[in-house]
Amino acid sequence: MTSTELSTHIATSAGSSLFIPAPTTPYQGDIARYWDREARPVNLRLGDVDGLYHHHYGIGDVDHTALGDANDSTYEKKLIAELHRLESAQAELLLDHLGPIERDDTLVDAGCGRGGSMVMAHQRFGCRVEGVTLSAKQADFANQRARELGIEDHIHARVCNMLGTPFESGRAAASWNNESSMYVDLHDLFAEHSRILAVGGRYVTITGCWNPRYGQPSKYVSQINAHFECNIHSRREYLRSMADNRLVPQAVIDLTPATLPYWELRATSSLVTGIEEAFINSYKDGSFQYLLIAADRI
Ligand SMILES: C[S@@+](CC[C@H](N)C(=O)[O-])C[C@H]1O[C@@H](n2cnc3c(N)ncnc32)[C@H](O)[C@@H]1O
Ligand SMILES: CC(C)=CCC/C(C)=C/COP(=O)(O)OP(=O)(O)O
Ligand SMILES: [Mg+2]
Questions:
Q1: Which ipTM was obtained for this model?
Q2: 44-94, pLDDT tens digit by residue?
Q3: pLDDT > 70? residue 1
């Protein structure tokens, strides 16, 4: 039994397991503080559009007819709605790859943020969704949104290290990391997903990863790491760590071309955060890729 498994979950019998949380590190304390303090307009203004708050990026073609004339007084509002639509389209694509999910299934969102993807998953499948985040502020926000929507019986966010969750082994029908895998060691991560997933369950991640064909992380990838205090992994590490933990890829989709229109539109908005050029340049020079990987737990 790996140290992660031992420190994570000492099961005595169903329902009476003794849960010992995975150790947290000073780094995870910093990440918790980052997200507790985060309040960027680019995230809050987009979430205000329909109450789905995301901390991930968009995919798909920009609907320029929806934007209208850039000189129109309503243009900024339409641009925010369009950026948000593209971010919600990204979550829809992730959900498309979870496979057949029943109302009595349980899903796990590892690194759930303010819970936008959790709400979308429940609205699509009618199932239960458990989310974990290091940020108490995010967990509270997500649970408040669930109460406002009257779905608090179905979705729940908690402060918990995704490397050591309290969830029973082999019970999750599907689980995912939506732009949250770059904060943890992938072997530890996929060992925990492999533990909580049912045999035949589905794991999905949408992530940015550095491209081994480029050679090493580029300066743009380093800028993104510094901006978010994260540690972007290579595409090779994802596939190797999955294989070592009984996760066999069913689909690997390069979403790089699909995310560029979002970034090019975002770079024209008043909500820029300064990281836009690093994403655009790294996608264009091939050093960075935006991938969806869907894998079966065998
Ligand atoms: C970029 S946000 C993505 C949020 C969400 N997946 C979404 O798509 O909106 C990254 C999330 O990962 C969470 N996170 C980072 N490291 C974590 C860890 N070790 N355990 C649990 N959550 C973690 C952060 O708290 C944050 O909620
Ligand atoms: C693809 C990669 C490597 C992403 C890193 C993880 C991350 C911080 C995503 C966006 O969060 P956000 O929506 O809070 O960021 P922003 O403020 O830029 O919109
Ligand atoms: Mg954002």
A1: 0.99
A2: 999 999 999 999 999 999 999 999 999 999 999 999 999 999 999 999 999
A3: no
Query: Which residue's CA lies nearest to atom 5 of ligand 2?
Result: 179
What's the CA gap between 270 and 291, in Å, rounded?
27
Q: Which pTM was predicted? A: 0.94
Ligand 1 atom closest to the CA of 32, numbered from 1: 25
Under 8 Å CB-to-CB from 192, ≥6 apart: which residues? 4, 8, 22, 110, 162, 163, 164, 165
A 10 A CB-CB count for 60 gives 19
Ligand at minimal distance from the CA of 288 is 2
Phi-psi map region of 229: left, alpha, beta (phi>0 left; psi -120 to 50 alpha): left
| Residue nearest ligand 2's atom 14 by CA | 55
| Burial of 216: CB neighbours in 10 Å, binned 0-12, 13-18, 19+ | exposed
